């Protein structure tokens, strides 16, 4: 089904000494690690939006990319959407990526109203179904774009206008239907504008209650249609909103508890969003694992000099290794995976730049994953953590946490045993050196 958009139709694995930019150096999908192939562990997905819908603009300049399916190149919007799908699936199969992800607005042209949007989405869903059957590529997750169109300038579920809330709910339903039709393994909600610019015109409680009701309706509809995948929320602290309600893992978890959604909703975590929230990526993953809400990841990075969400492909092996370490420590992915929510730089104009960006990202993830697996199998790091908390295995310590001792009995215990603890080294530098042995 080659469209001849790219210069090759297959990216081979050539090993660590490879110098071919259109070949993998570290990602060998059939290599078995910890009982599963790398393809099964990493579950790579290609993001539809940045690769095929984004024109290369930024706040100071417009389109730089010239794609044959863009509106300035093709007069029939649906014909353009179908050509875009041809190139997209050509790219998925060329990379050997087992999954893709999409927003509705990425794949269908904007219609004159909701009904036309739905017709366009259903037509493209039929196209996708045929291509997925033909290629074996699967859908990791679908979602709705409820932030780009001007109607969403004040949010979607949190909008002060109930008509926008209703339009958003109806759009989510159609996107869930499309995801279910395509056997998608998850459905993600990213509240791109679910936040506020100023408190001068914002009712925080009302907006959060609206957002809670919307998410409850999503869960209710999931069960109504028999969708077996996970419902996931993607935390992000800011940009475009000054403050977004889904700020980070801890904030979203508190939101889920408040609106009775524990056990129903997990999270899709993005490296760049973690950094914007003032955290490390491994922190967000480890916290989500600890709270039982880890779902999937978007593997991209920010430019640390820019201080905003630049959506660049990963290139830092130690960062990636620690992320996969905590994913593996929690048991690995179930229905989630590694989605590249990353985009080319504006000056990377050529079709093959799309391939090379993903090749590099997949190689970095493979290197980081192999380092993480080696750390897990070595177990020195895990043993150091267990040893640090070993005192809590004692009967007296367990009784304190189990509620069998109160402040009075603990005081008596300290007095009678003349407890006078001395601090013990956390050995941070040793552990950092230990990690560096693997990366």
Automatic annotation (TrEMBL):
PROSITE patterns: XYLOSE_ISOMERASE (PS51415)
EC assignment: 5.3.1.5
NCBIfam families registered for this protein in UniProt: PRK05474.1 (NF003998), xylose_isom_A (TIGR02630)
Active site (record annotation): 103, 106
Protein family per UniProt: Belongs to the xylose isomerase family.
Name this protein carries in UniProt: Xylose isomerase
Entry's cofactor comment: Binds 2 magnesium ions per subunit.
Signal peptide coordinates: none
Xref: InterPro entries: Xyl_isomerase-like_sf, Xylose_isom_bac, Xylose_isomerase
Compartments it resides in: Cytoplasm
Residues the entry annotates as binding Mg(2+) 2: 270, 273, 309, 311
Keywords: Carbohydrate metabolism, Cytoplasm, Isomerase, Magnesium, Metal-binding, Xylose metabolism
Enzyme class: isomerase
Superkingdom per UniProt: Bacteria
Catalytic activity: alpha-D-xylose = alpha-D-xylulofuranose
UniProt cofactor(s): Mg(2+)
């Amino acid at each position: 089904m080659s469209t001849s958009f790219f210069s090759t139709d297959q990216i081979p694995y050539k090993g660590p000494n490879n110098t071919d930019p259109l070949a993998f150096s570290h990602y060998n999908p059939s290599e078995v690690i910890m009982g599963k192939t790398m393809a099964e562990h990493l579950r790579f997905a290609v993001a539809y939006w940045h690769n095929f819908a984004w024109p290369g603009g930024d706040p100071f300049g417009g389109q730089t990319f010239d794609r044959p399916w863009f509106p300035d190149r093709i007069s029939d919007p649906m014909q353009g959407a179908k050509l875009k799908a041809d190139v997209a699936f050509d790219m998925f199969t060329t990379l050997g990526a087992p999954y893709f992800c999409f927003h509705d607005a990425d794949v269908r042209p904007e219609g004159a109203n909701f009904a036309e949007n739905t017709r366009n989405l259903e037509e493209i869903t039929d196209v996708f179904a045929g291509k997925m059957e033909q290629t074996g590529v699967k859908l990791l997750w679908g979602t709705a774009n409820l932030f780009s169109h001007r109607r969403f300038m004040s949010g979607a579920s949190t909008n002060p206008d109930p008509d926008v809330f209703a339009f958003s709910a109806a759009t989510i339903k159609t996107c869930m239907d499309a995801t279910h039709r395509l056997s998608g393994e998850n459905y993600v909600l990213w509240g791109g504008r679910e936040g506020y610019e100023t408190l001068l015109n914002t009712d925080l409680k009302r907006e959060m209650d609206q957002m809670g009701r919307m998410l409850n309706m999503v869960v209710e509809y999931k069960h109504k249609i028999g969708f077996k995948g996970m419902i996931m929320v993607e935390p992000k602290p800011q940009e475009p909103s000054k403050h977004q309600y889904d700020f980070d893992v801890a904030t979203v978890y508190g939101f889920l508890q408040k609106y009775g959604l524990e056990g129903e909703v997990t999270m899709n975590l993005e490296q760049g969003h973690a950094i914007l929230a003032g955290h490390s990526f491994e922190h967000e993953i480890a916290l989500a694992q600890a709270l039982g809400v880890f779902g999937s990841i978007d593997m991209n990075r920010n430019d640390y000099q820019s201080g905003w969400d630049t959506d660049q492909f990963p290139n830092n092996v130690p960062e990636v290794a620690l992320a996969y370490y905590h994913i593996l420590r929690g048991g690995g992915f179930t229905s989630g995976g590694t989605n590249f929510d990353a985009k080319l730089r504006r000056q990377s104009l050529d079709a093959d730049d799309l391939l090379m960006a993903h090749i590099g990202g997949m190689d970095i993830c493979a290197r980081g994953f192999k380092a993480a697996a080696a750390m897990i199998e070595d177990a020195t790091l895990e043993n150091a953590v267990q040893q640090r908390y070993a005192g809590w295995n004692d009967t007296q310590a367990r009784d304190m946490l189990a509620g069998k001792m109160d402040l009075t009995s603990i005081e008596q215990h300290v007095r009678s045993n003349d407890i006078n603890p001395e601090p013990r080294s956390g050995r941070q530098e040793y552990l950092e050196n230990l990690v560096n042995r693997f990366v």
